[in-house]
Write a structure and sequence with these properties.
Layout: E1 3-9, E2 25-31, H1 39-48, E3 64-67, H2 70-87, E4 97-100, E5 105-106, H3 120-129, H4 133-138, H5 140-150, H6 157-165, H7 171-181
Parallel strand pairs: 3-4
Antiparallel strand pairs: 1-2, 1-5
Helix pairs in contact: 1-2, 6-7
């Protein structure tokens, strides 16, 4: 992943916020390198991550794929149908929405990079480096650190070391991240 950020999309309210969401849905926006991972692979991860025949009643938390264009919509529908087959249900029984993004509005800064606040020194360094919430949300380094420290998945130590070397982290924080992320 190059970047991830959380926010609100799919609705019509101007300037949604967490406390005044209107008809928007909480969502994650992902920038990725299509030479490293295909959009279809991201969709597959999404469909594998939840049961598509059920959806939460509130629009704020509903399961949905938000598309930017007809090509993404077609791929979302195709992978939805495959997910339905895996679940043993008809594509018409899928309750996960496939909707246009509309305007994506960044969530408030305290919602960005969810795992980092529990790693105080790392979050403090990043907050100093990226003083505006949007800068932090758009930071590839912050995205990667959030994933390494928050995913709970084992990291490839060699890949992690290479990425940390180019991250700009002070040595003490690099050592901390390596110790916490490599399990």
């Amino acid at each position: 992943m190059l970047r991830t950020r959380v926010g609100y999309c799919g609705g019509t309210k101007q300037g949604p916020t967490y406390r005044a969401l209107g008809d928007h849905t909480e969502a994650i926006s992902i920038d990725f390198d299509p030479t490293a991972i295909r959009y279809e692979d991201l969709l597959q991860q999404f469909w594998d991550g939840h049961y598509c025949a059920r959806n939460i009643g509130k629009r704020q938390y509903m399961n949905a794929v938000f598309h930017h264009d007809d090509h993404q919509k077609h791929l979302a529908e195709s992978t939805r149908d495959q997910a339905a087959g895996k679940a043993g249900i008809s594509p018409h029984s899928v309750e996960t929405g496939i909707l246009p993004v509309g305007t994506f509005t960044y969530a408030e800064a305290y919602h960005q990079k969810y795992a980092l606040p529990s790693h105080h020194e790392v979050r403090a360094f990043l907050s100093d480096t990226y003083p505006k919430g949007k800068e932090l949300a758009d930071s590839t380094v912050a995205t990667r650190l959030n994933a390494w420290l928050g995913s709970g998945l084992a990291c490839d130590p060699m890949v992690l070391e290479q990425e940390i070397e180019s991250s700009g982290l002070p040595e003490s924080l690099s050592t901390y991240v390596l110790a916490k992320a490599v399990r």
